[in-house]
């Protein structure tokens, strides 16, 4: 009887909840603002406006959790830019929900772990510019103040191992409870005077390069490496060599208490500015005809590194993923063919999704911090089928 009642409540919610939600959201042409992005309509790139509008209304009704924005770029045109109501992130609030706001194109959004893909890009650029020799160097070549940790096989850890989450250092930020000492990434914020020490003092448990362990602490070390190699902190370096060339002016980058920048998860950008990194990677490292990062770096980002395959990400409906140079990889079926996608992904539903075969980038921001995301379902039901 209890199961029957629960089923009745669920069915009633589906039937009456959908009826009570207005399904009148219509597609609108994105706004042109002279930021390097050309705009056009969905029809211009042969995307079904009716199906996309249905998807927008389903988002508006909460069918895919809390989605704050959805942006689509295809065939050199920004063809969709939609914003929704949702909560700002607040660490110490229930469900991590801060103020309820109506998101818009001018509001920077927390990137969460999408930050890592911007950090990775900075490493690639530093190599292109000659500040760093290559990814195969020991991390300790650029950590003069931490040579005491160059022991117990840590000396074999390279920059590439940090970028691909294969350092071999014991680390847990996925299964351990947030807000506790057991969660290694949270320790960096609340317990560590020097986050780099807290990363390097971890035990070595696997041969570097062989085992995937998601480790945001490695990104913090990469920011320190950039600082020591270039005499610029990662904020200064990224502004000069990444953000300014992409015509991105509104950049907020959070810091730890010791003033180190959190290069793992505290970058704030607008969805349009997120899109620009996706377009750069779609175009093999170029933005509006100007080389930003090498094609080789993009290629290594878009394919799994070594054994980084079959990875299930907590809180997502993305299935099994690969992992390259801080970008996740997946495959989809579209019009009878298998297509590839690689993406920068972050907690709560922050995504920069690149579809090379479709000449398309899709960006999402969201607030599903205490619940699972359903963005792959949204892709498969409304976005990919709309592309003719």
Using the alpha-carbon principal axes, give the shape. globular
Termini separation comes to 47 Å
Helix content: 25-40%
Q: Mean pLDDT across all residues, rounded?
A: 93
Q: How many helical stretches?
A: 11
Tell me about the biggest sheet?
Answer: 8 strands, antiparallel
**Order of strands in the sheet with the most strands?**
2-1-15-14-13-12-11-10
Structurally, the number of domains stands at: 2
CATH architecture of the largest domain: 3-Layer(aba) Sandwich
Which residue ranges are poorly predicted, with pLDDT under 50 across at least 5 consecutive positions? Answer: 1-19
The CATH topology assignment of the largest domain is Beta-lactamase
Strand content: 15-25%
- Rg on CA atoms, Å: 21 Å
Give the SSE order as H and E letters.
HHEEEEEHHHHHHEEHEEHEEEEEEH
Number of strands: 15
Structural class: alpha+beta
Provide the CATH top-level class of the largest domain.
Answer: Alpha Beta
Throw out a few tags for this protein.
388 residues, alpha+beta, Beta-lactamase, 2 domains, eight-stranded antiparallel sheet, three-stranded antiparallel sheet, 11 helices, 15 strands, globular, disordered N terminus
């Amino acid at each position: 009887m209890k199961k029957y009642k629960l089923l009745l409540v669920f069915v009633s919610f589906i039937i009456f909840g959908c009826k009570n939600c207005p399904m009148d959201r219509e597609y609108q042409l994105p706004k042109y603002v002279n930021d390097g992005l050309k705009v056009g309509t969905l029809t211009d790139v042969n995307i079904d406006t009716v199906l996309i509008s249905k998807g927008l209304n389903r988002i508006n009704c909460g069918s895919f959790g809390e989605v704050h924005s959805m942006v689509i770029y295809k065939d050199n045109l920004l063809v969709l830019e939609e914003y929704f109501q949702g909560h700002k992130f607040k660490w110490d609030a229930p469900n991590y929900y801060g103020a309820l706001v109506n998101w818009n194109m001018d509001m920077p959004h927390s990137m969460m772990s999408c930050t890592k893909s911007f950090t990775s890009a900075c490493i690639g650029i530093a190599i292109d510019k000659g500040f760093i020799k290559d990814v195969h160097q020991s991390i300790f070549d650029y950590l003069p103040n931490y040579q005491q940790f160059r022991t117990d096989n840590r000396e074999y850890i390279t920059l590439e191992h940090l970028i691909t989450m294969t350092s071999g250092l014991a680390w847990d930020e996925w299964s351990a409870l947030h807000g506790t000492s057991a969660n290694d990434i949270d320790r960096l914020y609340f317990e560590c005077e020097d986050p780099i020490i807290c990363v390097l003092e971890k035990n070595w448990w696997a041969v570097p390069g062989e085992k995937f362990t998601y480790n945001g602490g490695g990104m913090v070390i990469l920011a320190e490496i950039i600082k020591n190699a270039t005499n610029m902190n990662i904020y200064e370096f990224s502004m000069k060599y990444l953000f300014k060339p992409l015509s991105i002016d509104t950049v907020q980058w959070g810091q730890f208490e010791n003033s180190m920048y959190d290069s793992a998860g505290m970058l704030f950008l607008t969805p349009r500015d997120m899109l620009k990194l996706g377009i750069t990677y779609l175009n093999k490292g170029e933005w509006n005809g100007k080389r930003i990062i090498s094609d080789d770096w993009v290629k290594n980002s878009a394919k799994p590194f070594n054994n980084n395959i079959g990875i299930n990400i907590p809180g997502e409906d993305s299935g099994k993923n690969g992992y390259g140079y801080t970008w996740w990889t997946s495959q989809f079926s579209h019009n009878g063919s298998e297509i590839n996608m690689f993406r920068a992904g972050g907690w709560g539903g922050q995504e920069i999704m690149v579809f090379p075969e479709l000449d398309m980038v899709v960006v999402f921001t969201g607030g599903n911090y205490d619940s699972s995301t359903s963005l792959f379902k949204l892709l498969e039901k409304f976005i990919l089928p709309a592309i003719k």
